[in-house]
Amino acid sequence: MGFAPGRKNCRRAPESLRSRRHTITQPRLALVSIGIRRDLLAPLVYFSKFELVHFYKKNVYGDLTADDFDSTLRGYHSPRDLEQQLVRAQPTVIQGVEPFSFYTQPLAWACVMAARKTHAALVVPTFENRPLDVKFGKLRAIVLRRVLQFYFARACLIFALNNGARENVLQCHVAPHKIVRALWGTWGVDTREFFPHNGRNTNQSPIVLFTGRLHEEKGVFVLLDAFQAIQHEFPEARLVMAGDGPARGKLAQEIAQHNISNVELRGIVKNRDVPALMRQADLFCAPSLTTRKWAEQVGMSALQAMASGLPIVSTRSGAIPEYIPENAGILVRENDAGALAQALRELLTHPERAREMGRRAADYARMQYDAQKNIERAEQLVMEHCVR
Q1: Beta bridge partners of 285
Q2: Fold: same for 15-188+370-386 and 207-368
Q3: Residue boundaries of the structural domains of the chain
Q4: CA–CA gap between residue 243 and residue 179 (Å, rounded)
Q5: pLDDT by residue (tens digit) across 205-241?
Q6: Collapsing DSSP states into helix, strand and coil, what is residue 225?
Q7: Three-class SS string for 120-142?
Q8: Helices vs strands, H then E, count in the chain
Q9: Is 186 exposed, middle or buried (CB count within 10 Å of its CB: 0-12, 13-18, 19+)?
Q10: What is the pLDDT of residues 172-209, one digit of tens each?
């Protein structure tokens, strides 16, 4: 997951925000991430209580332009390099990395060591919602929990982004008062970019949209089967799948072999172009599947679609039911092409119901997932719990 600071060049905050940000000496918040991407960078213009500096290892989606990089963004190449750079930055608060991974442990402990040397407070966000015994096996899970007891003991605040993540933290014998449920890192949706568009011509062919990784765990083959099942009823309907991943080649092969019409593999769509794509669609489908090692943790694409006024068809994988209310979409069993087809059929047959569901989705997203409001709340929590 990626966390990043606001940019000076391409995502300019309103004048009132920019002037307020520099009127007084502010505590410094160091954000540490492995990968960065634009939808997690753009909303951070709304940070106002902290001076931000961000350390990252790689640009995972390649959707950043030169204007996205400024002096607040600093690359690191190893845990030791990260620790040294954090110490030089002298932050007031350090945000560490996802803890429930053996891969991230060297970076997590680099953050702990830097916090000790600089007397900085430590905040920890976590998304991981798979039970550790299932994901790692019992023995490795016991080892990880014991190691993380010390990591969490150093933290002043732990942001759990879903119920499974909170349960994993509690199993490390963490005091419940340290854990808060709030969007951090995945900040929500910038409603200046993602908003409903009422001008679409309803006489156009209906579009079912998927955006995300083209990976089997995202349910892309189940979606293809479901779309094929409804084509004889809705021959004008189109399926647009935007994104890239290891399943793209096999998807193209399946489409060709079964002669499935009206399916477009759009390829990578840069985040700044996603709002326009969503405003062309009629409904959004995210049929994620739970595996031993992964379940949907938040589902940012679905939140963006909700904010864009699209009804959602999805599954009950992971945290999806926590983020998509019943009146904003239809949730079906995982890996069930028939149930998925029936949900698509229901919304395509009753477009007024779909539009009403989209309106409710947009209202809910504005209330719950507005990035500016979430950042203001998260900042206040860190100020209250971590800054002396």
Answers
A1: 313
A2: yes
A3: 15-188+370-386, 207-368
A4: 34
A5: 999 999 999 999 999 999 999 999 999 999 999 999 9
A6: helix
A7: CEEEEEECCCCCHHHHHCHHHHH
A8: 15, 15
A9: buried
A10: 999 999 999 999 999 999 999 999 987 655 668 999 99
135: which residues sit within 8 A by CB, 6+ positions away? 128, 141, 292, 293
Q: Is the pLDDT of residue 280 over 70?
A: yes
Would the pLDDT of 293 be above 60?
Answer: yes
Angle at Cα 150 formed by Cα 148 and Cα 154, nearest 5°? 115
For residue 28, the 8-state DSSP code is E
Q: Check residue 53 and give its pLDDT.
A: 96
How far the first Cα of the chain sits from its last, in Å, is 28
Query: Could you give the CA distance from residue 136 to residue 45 in angstroms, rounded to a whole number?
Result: 38
For residue 294, what are the contacts with CB-CB under 8 A and spacing of at least 6? 130, 217
Judged against a pLDDT cut of 90, whether residue 70 lies above it is answered with: no
DSSP letters spanning 58-111: EESS----GGG--TTEEE-SSHHHHHHHHHHH--SEEE----S-STTHHHHHHH
Q: What pLDDT does 67 receive?
A: 75
Q: Please give the model's pTM, rounded to 2 decimal places.
A: 0.90
3-state helix, strand, coil in the chain (%, to 5): 45, 15, 40
What is the separation of C-alpha 96 from the centre of its chain, rounded to a whole number of angstroms? 17
Question: 365 and 305 in contact (C-beta within 8 Å)?
Answer: no
Give the CA distances from residue 346 to residues 170, 338, 351, 353, in Å, rounded to whole numbers and listed in that order.
Answer: 41, 12, 9, 9
Quote the crossing angle between the two packed helices 105-118 and 79-89, to the nearest 10°.
Answer: 30
Q: Which two tokens stand for residue 89?
A: 């930055």
**Spatial distance between the Cα atoms of 353 and 311, rounded to a whole number of angstroms:** 9
Report CA-CA distances (Å) from 84 to 80, 114, 151, 315: 6, 7, 19, 44
At the topology level, CATH places domain 15-188+370-386 in Rossmann fold (3.40.50)
What's the burial of 331, exposed, middle or buried (CB within 10 Å: 0-12/13-18/19+)? buried
φ, ψ dihedrals at 127, nearest 5°? -105, -25
Question: CATH homologous superfamily for 207-368?
Answer: Glycogen Phosphorylase B; (3.40.50.2000)
Q: Which of 18, 94, 21 is nearest to 51 (CA)?
A: 21
pLDDT for 65 beyond 80: no
At which residue do the structure tokens 């976590």 appear? Answer: 126
Residues 6+ apart with CB under 8 A from 386: 93, 121, 123, 156, 157
